[in-house]
Each structure stands twice: as structure tokens, then as C-alpha cells.
Amino acid sequence: MSETLGLAPQRDVILQTNRCKPQEFVRTNWVATVESHVTREDMMTPRFWSNVAVQFRQFDRIDVRQDDGKFYAEYLILNADKTSAYLKELIWVDLTDNEVKTKEAEFKYQWRGPHAKHSIVRTRDGSVMVEKLDARVDAEKWLANYLETI
Predict the structure, then answer these.
(1) How many CA atoms are closer than 13 Å to the CA of 23, on its beta-carbon side?
(2) How many CA atoms lie within 13 A of 8 on its CB side?
(3) pLDDT of the chain, 150 residues: tens digit per residue
(4) What is the C-alpha separation between 123 and 127, in angstroms, rounded?
(5) In what order do the strands lie in the sheet with 61-66?
(6) Quick one: which of 97, 102, 91 has its CA closest to 130?
(7) Which residues does 128 contact at the CB level (< 8 Å), separation at least 6?
(8) Neighbours of 108 (CB within 10 A)
């Protein structure tokens, strides 16, 4: 009927098969573990990424976690060159509310990232009493033994 009125026929628009691929073929997902002094603003500075920017491509993603576990973030790379990367923040999660404290108020258990691992920290001054333990239970055992000796 539309042809008789001089109108173009309605057509289906479909995605071509060569335009749909597994993400592994199109982009890289990176994971960066930053030191505890690095801020949200630091990571949005293009030169922050200068040591690794040459590896990045447009639309790659970066998952960022802080050594001491205070935040988790996801970024989309908008543009990158040899010495800088321009990002769009997709997710920012503040994890500081999730600190798990031991029964003893003087010390707290803390996950401090994949390098420092499970640790016991003195709450009054933030001194790390022990770190690099393989499991939380090991940190709690260390604290129990320490409390018996003092």
C-alpha cells in the first residue's frame, strides 16, 4: 500500500555480523592497584597513567582498587597516547564504611590489598603490626597470640 502512495517501504534495520564480536577481540580490561595515597582526582589526571598509557586503546576499561581497600572504581578510556590517558569514570565505590574491627578496640583487622594482604593495624596511630598474611584467620590468630603475650 505504501508503494502506491509514493512512500518508501518500511525496512528492518539489522546489525551486520562483522560488527558484533566477543569483548576480548575488541577491548582489553585492565586492573590497576594504586597506592593508598592516590586520590580520585589523581587518577583523572591524564599524566597519572603516563607509564602505562602506551598500552591503552580507546574503549578499554580499567578496574582500579586501592592497596588498603578504601575504594573500587571503573574507568572507560576515551583516548590514550604514549604519555597520557583520558578517562570517563563509570563507577566509584567508597569502601571505608566496611571496615571490620576485632573485639579488641586497640587493633583492627584490615585487608590492605594484594600486596600487603591481610593485616592487623593498631587503631590509635595506624601502625601496621603484621602484614602479608595469607588469610584473615591467620591475622586473627596472630592477634590472639599477641594479646596473650602482652
Answers:
(1) 6
(2) 3
(3) 555 667 777 888 999 999 999 998 999 999 999 998 999 999 999 999 999 999 999 999 999 999 888 899 999 999 999 999 999 999 999 887 655 444 456 888 889 999 999 999 988 888 899 999 998 888 888 988 888 887
(4) 8
(5) 29-34, 61-66, 71-80, 85-94
(6) 102
(7) 112, 116, 119, 120, 121, 122
(8) 19
- Return the C-alpha torsion angle 98, 102, 106, 110, nearest 10: -50
Q: What is the pTM of this model?
A: 0.60
Give the integer Cα–Cα distance in Å for 108 and 143: 9
Domains and CATH numbers, the chain: 22-94 (2.40.240.20), 99-149 (no CATH)
